[in-house]
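Design review, sub-item: ligand-bound model
Attendees: FS, YL, KQ
YL presented the inputs for the zinc ion complex:
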Amino acid sequence: MAVTSMRRFDLSEWKRSPHLTDLRRTVAGLLAEGRHRTALDEVLRALRRDPENLDGLFVALSVLAQSRTTRLASPEPLTEMQQWSALLAPITTACSACDARWYSTHAVLFADNDVQFQPTNPIGMQCQKCRYTLCRDCLKAQRPTSYTASVDAPEVVAGSCANTACDGRGLSVPVLPTGRPDATPMDPAAIEGVLVVRDGPIRPTTDDALAVVTRFLPLISDDAPLLHIRRARPGTMSDNATRDALARSLLLDLEREGALAPDSWGRSRRMHILAGPGGDGDYLIVPVQKSLRRLPPATPHAASGPGTYTYLLQILPLRGSWATLRDPRTGDFHEGTFGALSAPAESLPGIAQEIIKRFERMGQSRRVMFFEGDYTQEQGLTTDDVYGIVTEGSTSLSPYSEGAE
Ligand SMILES: [Zn+2]
Ligand SMILES: [Zn+2]
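KQ shared the predicted structure:
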């Protein structure tokens, strides 16, 4: 993911074209109708195709620069997810001292007015040399309390640059984009898939997952099909080592299902997000870069395309009948014994043998039942729905029959 490297937008690199680009024309029309959300969606789609498109970044800033009241009165207000998209990281201004982020309108105002202007009550101040930035709250904290000056009084210069190597003067305006320290530039076209895991018993919805993913990766809602959403059992996300082990095993599952090309671990990055933007729990986000190796051509005699199946491993205790393995604490099926996969029907026996092998330590006879479709989010799996069974060592799928061994 090396072709995309821009960390922050520089106005000096942007040249106003004498001709309106299609994007500008579309966005201007939508804004005139008050359709802010659709306008920003258009911009995000354009940036998704070309994240370093300067015109796209400038237009995004002008949508975000519309006054807050105008936007709130809009029949289509912007969504949180849109506003904090990683695609907008290059136009974000971040406080150098705390977590505050905002979109400073100064770049747009300076571009649209040749005259110097003095924004009153700015959200922050910036070193004009190195872009060290402090938000209003951090500026207040840095300055001794004054009993005479009104809090709202505009200040020309306040605070000072804390970068020791910088000999910039005090902080002032304009405040220009700094980029976001937590967003790494990445080429969206190079992303093969993203594993999204939330700590806890409930699998996140697509919307939950998108809210977190779009904040840190240059993807948009249209990319939902790239996400592989999972939940994490207790204790599997407690530290780096357990998170890596979890990611590794889930990536292997995805490779087995044909959802990712082989050796995905080597092309992945693990991002641990504490209490996602929705405050709904910790996330592990694992973007996987596309493999540079070309995929082998499809085998000519592959009879069918992939289908979706649910697998369930069973064991045969010494005394008794076929049984499932359950976690004594949660009552859920034991990790790795139950899940959904996408694969051609003819590959199911091979997949079953791999699952059976993983539970070798159980010692007992094992078999894997397959159900057609994804039953992982549903209750009440019944033997009537069994698509086929693969017993240990078997290379074929047999139909389910009562008491079959
Ligand atoms: Zn701050
Ligand atoms: Zn400085």
